[in-house]
Amino acid sequence: MMINMRCPNCGANISYDPARPFMFCQYCGTKITGNGQIQPRTISDAPNLTINYSTASPAYELAVEFNGERWVFPNNSSKAFTLRPGIYAMTFYIARRGWKRNIVIPQSGSPVTVNVVYAGRTKIYIQ
Known about the structure:
There is one protein chain. The protein contains no helices and twelve strands. The chain has about 130 residues and is mainly β.
């Protein structure tokens, strides 16, 4: 049974499985305990991937697929993820076109940022 709640950090609507001792907000990456409290981050559970999306054409949303899941980004939005080190095959979709990129999450825990910009042509910057 899932419980709907708001992230105590960013206010996003999220669902929580009470059988788990904690969860991460899918929008800001905050670690939340079962009682809805923010748990202090450690290096190992801080978000290490941020995807940012911006476009001059608000009608176009970005969809990102990896690990069998799909996330949709409206214009001028971001999402933070906490991933294990490794290589992730991601597909970025805008206006029915897809671009595949391998994103490397390093063992060092250094954060990775992906900026996707759409202005008639799609540009994907990985930092």
